[in-house]
Amino acid sequence: MTAASSKSGFLVLFIFCLSVTTDSWGAIDKRVAVFVFGDSLFDPGNNNYINTTTSYQANFWPYGESYFTPPIGRFSNGRLIPDFIAEYAGLPLIPPYLEPGNNEFTYGANFASAGAGALIDTRAGFVVDIQTQLRYLGDVEKNYRDNLGNTEAQQLLSSAIYLFSCGANDYGTFVDNNLSIYHSFTDEQYTDIIIGNLTNIIKGIYAKGGRKFRFLTVPLSGFKDGETACCGSGPFRGNNGCGGMRGIKEYELCDNVNEFLIFDSAHPNEQASQ
Ligand SMILES: *[C@@H]1O[C@H](CO)[C@@H](O)[C@H](O)[C@H]1NC(C)=O
Ligand SMILES: *[C@@H]1O[C@H](CO)[C@@H](O)[C@H](O)[C@H]1NC(C)=O
Ligand SMILES: *[C@@H]1O[C@H](CO)[C@@H](O)[C@H](O)[C@H]1NC(C)=O
């Protein structure tokens, strides 16, 4: 993230901290499906399978070092929030939609793509944008209808949980994201456009029967260091060069990753996700 931006991505992320349903987590059925949308905070490795750059991929060391060997593409030292939610619900890890060989999606699918935002303009060409993510849900829906029949497919979609981490990347927080649309509106107008696009995605899911939506919330803190990243370079290890694969070869890696809220310049560590 660049300090220069007045429109902090993290701030925006936290604006989305609302839950729009009244059902209780306690009622979760073990056979429920989970569908995941959004950006790098939730991407389980979809970007391994698209034509993009290492700026939007994390399938190299030290990513995953605390849990996944070899690294499988999560922007963390280990698991992400959707992984813990699946685990706590008694489900297997929700697979990346684009991973070859997955086509049943018995317990749902994860469509999230590092770099994606609520706008298709954001990192266009390098990410799976959110509208494409919704189309992929349509493909899964068709698959369910073909294989389970309409009634069971409908039940699965309406009892499913829909998780979102979306919005931060629409802001000019990264040097390679300089959208003209970002500069042509006031902050309020721009936020309305983002909320408007996200609302359309939610309406699209609602039309398919979806009712249980969850949006990323502020993590509990409890860490020794909430400012400096574990992995990266420069002030606060804030340069996005963890792993030495994004143009910056040299970077530092902390020894005690669990003391740091943030793993690389922009993403929480595994314990924060937990
Ligand atoms: C991948 O993207 C690059 C840069 O956008 C482009 O030049 C190249 O043709 C693409 N390759 C494929 C296989 O689509
Ligand atoms: C970003 O775009 C604005 C206007 O489109 C331009 O004035 C500015 O120089 C650009 N910044 C970078 C870092 O390219
Ligand atoms: C969605 O984003 C586009 C820019 O990609 C914008 O033109 C459009 O007005 C937005 N839609 C809503 C409903 O805000």
TrEMBL record:
Keyword list, A-Z: Signal
Family: Belongs to the 'GDSL' lipolytic enzyme family.
Highest rank taxon of the organism: Eukaryota
Classification via PANTHER family: GDSL ESTERASE_LIPASE 1-RELATED, GDSL-LIKE LIPASE/ACYLHYDROLASE
InterPro entries tied to this protein: GDSL (IPR001087), GLIP1-5/GLL25 (IPR044552), SGNH_hydro_sf (IPR036514)
Record has Signal as a keyword: yes
First and last residue of the signal peptide: 1-22
Name of the protein described by the UniProt record: GDSL esterase/lipase 1-like protein
Pfam families named among the record's database cross-references: Lipase_GDSL
